[in-house]
Each structure stands twice: as structure tokens, then as C-alpha cells.
Amino acid sequence: MRTIVLDGESLGYADLRALSRDFLQREVKLRIAPEAERKVKRSREIVEKAIRDGRTVYGVNTGFGRLSDTRIDAAKLEELQEKLLLSHSAGMGTPIHEVGVMIALRANALLIGYSGVTPGLVRRLVELYNRGVMPVILDQGSVGASGDLAPLAQLGAAMLGHGEAFLGTTKYSAAAALKRARLAPYRFRPKEALSLINGTPFTSALLSRILADAEDLLKLADIAGAMSLEALKGSLKPFDPRFHRHRPHPGRLASAHNIRSLLLRSEVLESHRQCQKVQDAYSLR
Q1: What DSSP element (H or E) covers 268?
Q2: Within this chain, do residues 269 and 200 fall inside the same structural domain, yes or no?
Q3: Looking at the 3D structure of the chain, how many domains does it have?
Q4: Dihedral angle over CA of 260, 265, 266, 269, nearest 10
Q5: Which residues of 228-242 are buried (b: 16+ CB within 10 A; e: fewer)?
Q6: How far is CA 172 from the centre of its chain?
Q7: Does residue 243 lie within any of the structural domains?
Q8: Which of 93, 94, 100, 95 is nearest to 24 (CA)?
Q9: What is the torsional sign of CA 92, 158, 199, 11?
Q10: Secondary structure (3-state) at 189
Q11: What's the pTM value of the predicted model, to 2 decimals?
Q12: Considering the domain boundaries, does residue 194 fall inside one?
């Protein structure tokens, strides 16, 4: 079991790759760094003080967009956050597999400590991942540039108990999935829904999977190339590092190195070391 510690700063590609490959295996767990949680708490205290002081703060005690000048009654601040999620929870297409990566990315961004959420929101995101509750997030509908509003609203709505969610390979209503995972519906505090949906973890999660797939395909291409070279009794001379180090392309150096390494002990190529062919077919070299 691998544990990834979220601190708002150090989450890297290797972590995202591990998360993107962990859709069913559940071999990765998330944990919050204590200092990062303290930063979240300090930023939340600023929001709470603004509310106590009666200050007007966009998205906290006002409406959104054209309703930004509309003051919201103090008794309805949490209802405002719920309605924001439900009004934006829309999409179409098929469910994505990268929800776990999306959750980790959002939790990590909130742990930077500038979003004004409570530590409880970040803890709940981590609990969702660790208990295997993966909300159904559809692959079409994100604006992207100003935030993955619709996909993140689908995440938030599921935390409320609306929509659907997977536990393993089984899809349930979000309320049923939460109950099975022994999680109560989350109660969004003032500002928290706005902070949750203003980010691009949906887009970033898809990118991390694409990068991981591309990396795997590159490795498979080198393996397939080496097998073809061996089957056709080709030569390793075109992959000599002395040829490649004079070209400013790290990728070709890496690929040539991979093919040489894979065929280092090839008995087939060894038996043709003294072959009199001037060169192989162009497709092999």
C-alpha cells in the first residue's frame, strides 16, 4: 500500500500516475500533512471573521454573477452554497475513470491555504478517495479556463447525497454510496462550494492519464521495435550512442538506449554479428 501525503506543494507527476492507475486496485491512500491543514484553518478564520463583522464578500454572503449585488441573509449562507452546486451540476457523455485523481488534485490545491475552506472539506475529499467513493463525473460540459465548474459541481452534489457514485465497479445513488461507506452527506459552509468548483482538477486529471498512457505507449513502441529487429535479424549498429549523441533530441537517445538494452543478450542477433549486409531495411533503422 502506497500513501501519498498532500501538502499543497509536492504532488507530482509520479503521484498522479499512481493515482490514475489506481481506479480499481485501491493500492494508494491519501493523507493530509498537518502543517497544510493548519494553513487551511488559518485561512478559514479570515472568512469567519468577515462574516462575523458583517462585511460583504462575493460568493460568501452575496449572489453570483449578475446577482453579485444581492445580499444574502445570514441564515441562508449554507443554502446558497448547496444551490450553487446543484445549479451547476450538469453534464453529458460517459463517466470518467480519473475521479480519484481529480479528488486528490482538488484537495491538494485547497491545502495551499488560500481558498478559505474549512479543514473538514479537505478531510472529506480525502475520505471519499480512501473509502472508494467515486462520484459519477461526466466527460463533457466543462468550461475549463474559468474552472471545471460542472464536473466539480457534480463532485460537490454527490457529497451532498445527490447524483450517483461508484463503489468499486458498482454504481449507486450518491446517498446510498455515502451510506455504504459510512459517510454522512457533507454540509458545505459559507464559501466552500464556490472554492470547490473554481479550479481545473478535472482537466488536469485527464491530462495526467493521457501522459501516463503516452509514456506506456512509448515503452511499448520500443519493445515492439526491439522484437521486430530481433525477428528480422537486424543490426544494432544504427542504435550506437555515438550516432545519436550529436543530435539534440533526448527522446531518440532514450529510445536507442532502450532498444540496445532490450537486445543486449539476444542470441539471434549474436549469431548474425558477422553478417555482411551493408545496412538493414530503412524501416528497421
Answers
A1: helix 267-270
A2: no
A3: 2
A4: 70
A5: ebbeeebbbeebeee
A6: 22
A7: yes
A8: 100
A9: negative
A10: coil
A11: 0.90
A12: yes
Q: Phi/psi at 133 (nearest 5 deg)?
A: -90, 110
Distance CA 132, CA 128 (A): 6
Identify the CATH number of the domain in which residue 10 sits: 1.10.275.10
Name the grid cell of 226: 526491439
65 plus 107 within the same structural domain: yes
pLDDT (tens digit, 9 = 90+) per residue, 177-207?
999 999 999 999 999 999 999 999 999 999 9
Residue with grid cell 449507486, as numbered in its chain: 172
The set of residues, in sequence order, having a beta carbon less than 8 Å from that of 69 and lying 6+ positions away, is: 62, 63
Active site residues: 58
Relative to beta strand 164-167, strand 133-135 is antiparallel
Share of the chain above pLDDT 90, in %: 78
Residue-wise pLDDT tens digits, 79-113: 999 999 999 999 999 999 999 999 999 999 999 99
Task: Tell whether 84 is covered by a domain.
Answer: yes
